[in-house]
Amino acid sequence: MALLLRTFARQGVCLSRPHHNLLYRHAAPMGTTAKQEMNKFWDKNAKLNRPMSPHITIYKWSVPMMMSITHRGTGVGLSGAISAFALAALVLPGNYPYYLDLLHSLSIGPYLLGLTKFGLAFSVSYHTYNGIRHLFWDVGKGFKIPEVYRSGYIVIGLSLITSVALALL
Question: Which regions in the chain score pLDDT beneath 70?
Fold first, then answer.
């Protein structure tokens, strides 16, 4: 029992005060409400003519920023597509040849088919090459700004070359 009381005392829990709850954590009384603090914050920012931050208009767009956004987007898109395909494979009737014949019967045309193949190939290749780039960063290589841009352009170039090559198959 003494050990339990010592543990509560260390955590700032008071058992001697009668409150609605058995355990009462000491809290410093607040001089202002959260709404008052928020209003002070916004008034100060308005007087200083500050933009709401983070806001898209205060950032200068750069290649690393766009690559980061694209890496996240391809990751979310690929995981969503894989999950949807897996779920469809589990719940839809029929088998793979049935759905392949269904796709062939749609006659979607070579341009749409090529664009779809390019989109899938680009997502996979870009996410893979940029993931390898991140692995180099994890070991501390390539953090200087010129190296970041150079490796970014290499990733973009390799992704485009790989995507075109795979889409033409």
Answer: 1-31, 53-57
Closest CA to 117 of 69, 158, 165: 165
What are the structure tokens assigned to 86, written together? 């897996």
Helix, coil or strand: residue 100: helix
pLDDT at residue 23, rounded to an integer: 53
- In 3-118, beta strands by DSSP E: 13-14, 24-25
CA dihedral over 125, 131, 132, 137, signed as positive or negative: positive
> Contact, 25 vs 13, CB < 8 A?
yes
Per-residue burial over 91-111, b = 16 or more CB atoms within 10 Å of its CB, e = otherwise:
eeeeeeeeeeeeeeeeeeeee
- The one-letter amino acid at 28: A
Output the CA torsion sign for 25, 29, 33, 37: negative
Which residues on adjacent β-strands are paired with residue 24? 14
* Rg over CA atoms, the chain: 28
What pLDDT is recorded for position 137?
A: 94
Say what the pLDDT of residue 25 is.
55
Report residue 57 as tokens. Answer: 């208009």
